[in-house]
Design a protein that fits this description.
Sufe protein. Chain: A, about 160 residues, elongated, about 15% strand, alpha+beta, binds FE2/S2 (inorganic) cluster
């Protein structure tokens, strides 16, 4: 005879349900409306087929990872896509980074900082500022990857 154990998760009773709802409300209160919108409706998620540059970074503190793929046309970022394995702030910063960087020249995009991204999201809790590093760092790695493949862009010949 095979012993099988079926575990049924008990429904949250009223006190525990209230605690969970209160905690969820506190978490939502920590973030701006823009952070919540970009987390719930992320823009430009995915991966570009045959990208011109790829950037991957990880956060050693929390183990989160981000992969950025870019398309470059006429020296500008024509498209950016991202895949992020991470927290809500990392998702929101990935989404906002693409909105800030698409259409920019490579130099303008390289100058994009984590503070620019956090400001565009109307701020992040200080404990979550490190999450915006992923987005700005991954974009820089992807652009550097593109420039390594196109040294003529990185080091234009003197006229
Ligand atoms: S907690 Fe890891 S990126 Fe946000």
């Amino acid at each position: 005879m095979v012993n099988s154990v079926v575990r049924v998760r008990p429904a949250l009773g009223p006190p525990l349900k209230r605690v969970t709802e209160r905690r969820n409300t506190m978490v939502m209160d920590m973030y701006s409306k823009k952070v919540i919108d970009n987390f719930q409706n992320p823009r430009n998620a995915g991966e570009i087929v045959n990208p011109d540059g790829v950037g991957e970074v990880g956060n050693p503190q929390c183990g989160d990872m981000m992969r950025i793929t870019i398309k470059v046309e006429d020296g500008r970022l024509a498209d950016i896509k991202w895949k992020t394995l991470g927290c809500g702030a990392a998702i929101a910063t990935s989404s906002m980074m693409t909105q800030l960087a698409i259409g920019k020249s490579l130099d303008e995009a390289l100058a994009l900082t984590r503070d620019n991204i956090a400001t565009a999201l109307d701020g992040l809790p200080s404990a979550k500022m490190h999450c915006s590093n992923l987005a700005s760092d991954a974009l820089k790695v992807a652009i550097k990857n593109y420039l390594e493949k196109h040294p003529e862009v990185a080091n234009p010949k003197p006229e």
